[in-house]
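Question:
Write out your own:
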Amino acid sequence: MTIDPRLAERRKDVAEDKAKKNIGRLLKFLALILVTGSLVWLAFSPWLSINQVDTTGIAISSGHAVL
C-alpha cells in the first residue's frame, strides 16, 4: 500500500513542526534552569554576604545589643 505523496509531505511537515516546537520548549526550559541556578548561586555566593556591620550614631546602646 502506498501513501499519496501530498499526504506524506504533509505528515513530514507536521512532524517537523512538532519537533521544532519541542526543541523550543526544551531550550526555554534549559534557559529557565540556567537562570534559576545562577540566581540561587548568586544568593548564596560571597558577593552578597555581609562580613562586617558598623553601627553609628548610638550613644547609649552598645553595637552588640543593637545587632
Summary: The mean pLDDT is 87. The two ends are 83 Å apart (CA to CA). The helical segments are 5-44, 63-66.
